[in-house]
Amino acid sequence: MPNPTTDTERTPASHEALPVRTGIADEHRQKLAEGLAVVLANTYTLLGKTHGFHWNVTGARFHSLHEMFQDQYEDLTEAVDELAERIRALGHFAPGSLSQFLKLTEIEDEHGVPDEQEMLAQLVRDNEVVNRSCKRVVEITGDANDTVTEDLMNKRMGYHEKAAWMLRASIAQ
């Protein structure tokens, strides 16, 4: 039986957290946190791009695209919080700076103001990138027996697949 006065897991220093004992092995939590950090960075980058396109879209379909982009960036705003909180629940720190996101993201940054067709095409590709990064995390959840992260990834994949479809359907032929 551990001695509470000598067992550092039971009496952490004030700056240390209590150990995470949720039934997910440390190495799995590490892999999950790393995968989720990429999903978070991709999502945050997509959020920024979508918000920028919301501000800068022009053309005959301004109003409908402006509204669609707003709906999407509002969902993404909630998603980044959920993703970061899941990383924290797994006992790891979430990336939280733009420089960290830029190192981790798989989404290509946009430095200009493309026309509405190019905005839509980029957002289709970017939603698909986020979807694929979620799928990579799902592959880890099986070995980790982590149904909570799997559920979160399934929710996000469903969202990104639908968003990509709606954006794709908005591209004029």
TrEMBL record:
<feature type="domain" description="Ferritin/DPS">
    <location>
        <begin position="36"/>
        <end position="171"/>
    </location>
</feature>
<dbReference type="InterPro" id="IPR009078">
    <property type="entry name" value="Ferritin-like_SF"/>
</dbReference>
<dbReference type="InterPro" id="IPR002177">
    <property type="entry name" value="DPS_DNA-bd"/>
</dbReference>
<dbReference type="InterPro" id="IPR023188">
    <property type="entry name" value="DPS_DNA-bd_CS"/>
</dbReference>
<dbReference type="InterPro" id="IPR012347">
    <property type="entry name" value="Ferritin-like"/>
</dbReference>
<protein>
    <submittedName>
        <fullName>DNA starvation/stationary phase protection protein</fullName>
    </submittedName>
</protein>
<comment type="similarity">
    <text>Belongs to the Dps family.</text>
</comment>
<dbReference type="GO" id="GO:0016722">
    <property type="term" value="F:oxidoreductase activity, acting on metal ions"/>
</dbReference>
<dbReference type="GO" id="GO:0008199">
    <property type="term" value="F:ferric iron binding"/>
</dbReference>
<dbReference type="Pfam" id="PF00210">
    <property type="entry name" value="Ferritin"/>
</dbReference>
<dbReference type="InterPro" id="IPR008331">
    <property type="entry name" value="Ferritin_DPS_dom"/>
</dbReference>
